[in-house]
Specification:
- The structure is a homotetramer.
- By secondary structure, chain A is an alpha/beta fold.
- Chain A folds into 2 domains: 3-83, ACT domain (Alpha-Beta Plaits), CATH 3.30.70; 90-282, Rossmann fold (3-Layer(aba) Sandwich), CATH 3.40.50.170.
- Chain A has 8 helices and 13 strands.
- Chain A has helices at 16-26, 60-75, 99-109, 128-133, 148-161, 178-183, 204-211, 246-269, and strands at residues 3-11, 30-39, 44-52, 78-83, 89-94, 116-122, 138-140, 166-170, 188-192, 215-222, 232-239, 273-276, 279-282.
- Chain A has a 7-stranded mixed β-sheet. Chain A has a 4-stranded antiparallel β-sheet with strand order 2-3-1-4, covered by helices on one side. Chain A has a two-stranded antiparallel sheet with strand order 12-13.
- In chain A, helix 3 (99-109) runs parallel beside helix 8 (246-269).
- The longest helix of chain A has 24 residues, at 246-269.
- The two termini of chain A are 21 Å apart.
- Chain A binds chain C through residues 98-99, 102-103, 106-107, 109-110, 112, 133-134, 241, 243, 251, 255, 259, 262-263, 284, and chain C through 98-99, 102-103, 106-107, 109-110, 112, 133-134, 241, 243, 251, 255, 259, 262-263, 284.
């Protein structure tokens, strides 16, 4: 059964929920999910609503226009509407490590995710055999300081060709340039191997070891121009002890990274993430 | 600023949210919290809504009647309305252990909880000095098989005298009789020192040790006639190892018990718990 | 550099550590790991010690005999000696679900585990394509009440042919018969999809949902004749809420299951697990 | 039964464990705890050993001298010997918040800790009533920029008068001066209300809120001259969501802070913490 999912935010006012639920109900949509959140410090209202389209009177291709005219202007809303019968297209960027890649491809192949993965891009050939195992085209774009702009341009052409909606950096060890980020605003998902904002940048496990922390973490976030400082989607941690070497941290961290990344990606796929001012609202 | 809090559930139908938010908004209530949940396996709609009463047109003492007439009958609802300016009265039952008692009294004395604790009841004199430190009347009712009915009758008389709304069993080592439970349906909160439904009954830490589990837990639940089988409000766990003796489990468990109990009690005080068919909906 | 790993236990007495460390040091072994544990309730001493063999004076094939003669008899010890340069052979048993299988094969293929996986056995053909992706022989033995003894006999013949040291049940939905368990004592590792001893047996997620728990878990344990009651190697949990359906529990549980199983298997591979009286000592 | 506890570290060499266990066993000490750790990156050996003194041949007041002469010089060791029948004296420093204070005093009064708390020091009079409830002397030293050196000198005189062994800062909102830290090296325990090294300094909950993290933490560490950068003893975390305001973080953080602080203090009291180069080894 096809559903519409709407994510919106606007200045908080009385009557918004009433208006929106009225709009859906009157037009014979059956609400199957509704959650709202008010950020009182910013006076902003957030909402995620999902309804069945079977008897819905407004055609899918008119929905955005109608809603915009009737309510979005009135409440100064920003909103997005998604349909459950569209499978978003996701590209994976990877370097040399396989754990996040395997984890996502296993979920994908098992049919757990409502997504299509038309291609994998890498700066190294190392993961080609994994891509082949799962039958997904694998493109290699080696990156140097000199060719970075050029290579990213080719990557973007390829992404456009494949109709890619969002990108997942599965331990991709290259900084994405502002040009590319601009093309995919809050659509590039990264996994950072630390409990951000601790240990930004390179070699966070070594840094965690040196600092002597008792817990390590991983952070899934959208990529912005400031390194490791974009909106956080998901985090998790695990305990370590003085017995753990840097290698142990790397090994334990792999499990964290892949689980945290996959949780974050699933929330993105399921349209449960709303970004506002470098923070996320994650609807449950 | 005074607020009304309504918890309700009813068979799921279209238009409920619209009707209720309309009802509040039209009568000049400002909604500050709304969360809903649909249990699709049972086809039941659950809702918690909170609104400011300053300009609300319906007087507090008429609210229940109006809502009942206008909506509850229409939707076959069960609902409860609470007002934020009423401080519920909570009795603590305790036996010989102090950790949960101290933890709750410290929060209470520091003003963290919107509650009044007019008395503490025990089957032993051991915790009298703690009650005295915090200036709270302490009543001892020693319980034997023979006098149990009689003593509980006296306790209930005392609870009524003090206008007690709900009871917290802070490691109270007596089974509550069906008569008393009937007087306080989903109003007696217990902490059980295991991860229920594992290790029901007496000596759960010994049982956990004997089974060789790697994680222990604590469970806060409402008391029903079946032992340790009432609706679960909150649970938490902590890791243990083969190095931990039964005494270590008891010590680590104390921290779990007091935190889990206090979280559960706070959810109850804040009217965030809705019980349906031996399970709870906990609004966030 | 080759190492010896010894796991032992015996009645607790003075001088054991001294004797053993003396034995190793005098014979020019360099101790790189030593951990001991005393269970005071049972008065049993447990130890794991690991040493480099480069200059060790006793040949590998004489080590067991020498240690037995010199110390094991004296202290009434049970001990096992393993060598780091032997790769244990592990068989995977699987039914229809892929998540644990993928997770282990990804680690294996990436070279994370010091193990060999010569074959996968199943009662269904469903996972054949996964085995093929990773280039591992896959054998199907459909099991019915009538043919169970016969099929298990064939499986055991195959396991012997491949020189299998231990078996991992990766959500294998068949009860292993006592005959097979007897051949692999504490060498069959299972993942149960609940926080044991809660929800033993079939459909634990449905049972967890029905009970209304706030946390679900997974348990990795050795298989014994009593269902889901063998020595626990590893457990972990994750939070759920009233919003989670049984399907959600199954999905969240998959991540738990695969991580908990892989952690347990890794501990087994690394010779960190010592079983005593249906409980495990896990050396860190 | 009286026990000796020895914590030591030295450059890693063969034979240390043998020598030390020999020393204890030969002199009729019964080892009841032994754990060792080798930091291979630093080539340092760490050990904690605990033995019963009943039949031990070396008198307590000669033990340090004998061990130093016989072994510490040989191995270039740093070591400390403690006796279980000495109750260390602990001072609490507090400002205006009660949660950590109550938590520690409740454990202390219940006899959970092998410690004496002879006094509480504060820069504010606010917690006087709590100290009085528990019958512990409370001294107020208001601190300004101008009088800080003078007031700390008075505090140190008082600490010496009471024979204080170590200090716990229970949300004490003053930076300790280098002079005082020098007098109590690795003997001043602080609780910082963030997951260090994230959010060093003032207002960490506001900073965590602004950054949009999904998990908050608390860190118990020894105080050094660099702010919030001393050796970490214990950390823990809890999940938050976009629904949590800064006030919610403060409230949830209180539970974290008190549990993490109390765990860290207990490890210190039980002589389980060994500091080496701004990191801790925590023996289990």
């Amino acid at each position: 059964m096809s559903r519409a999912i709407m994510l919106l935010h606007c200045p908080d006012k009385q009557g918004i929920i009433t208006d929106i639920t009225n709009f859906i109900t009157v037009n014979k949509g059956n609400i199957v999910y509704l959650d709202q959140h008010v950020d009182y410090s910013e006076q902003i209202f957030f909402m995620r609503v999902e309804w069945e389209l079977d008897e819905f009177l407004i055609p899918k291709n008119k929905l955005e226009e109608y809603f915009c005219t009737l309510y979005a202007q009135k409440y100064d809303m920003r909103f997005k509407i998604y349909f459950s019968d569209y499978k978003p297209k996701m590209a994976i960027f990877v370097s040399k490590m396989s754990h996040c890649l395997y984890d996502m491809l296993a979920r994908y192949t098992a049919g757990e995710w409502n997504v299509e993965i038309p291609l994998i891009i890498s700066n190294h050939p190392d993961m080609q055999h994994v891509a082949e195992m799962f039958g997904i085209p694998y493109y290699v774009f080696p990156i140097t300081k000199e060719n970075k702009a050029e290579q990213e341009a080719k990557e973007m052409a390829l992404l456009q060709e494949y109709g890619v909606d969002f990108i997942v950096l599965a331990r991709y060890m290259q900084v994405i340039s502002p040009e590319m980020i601009e093309h995919y605003p809050n659509k590039i998902i990264n996994i950072h191997h630390s409990f951000l904002p601790a240990f930004v940048g390179a070699r966070p496990y070594q840094a965690a070891y040196d600092r002597g922390v008792k817990i390590i973490g991983a952070t899934c976030h959208y990529v912005t121009n400031e390194l490791d400082a974009g909106p956080i989607i998901e985090q998790d941690v695990c305990r370590i002890t003085h017995k753990d070497t840097v290698t142990d941290l790397v090994d334990k961290g792999k499990d964290l990274e892949k689980i945290v990344l996959s949780r974050g990606v699933l929330n993105h796929i399921d349209r449960k993430v709303l970004v506002y001012k470098n923070k996320t609202v994650i609807f449950g």
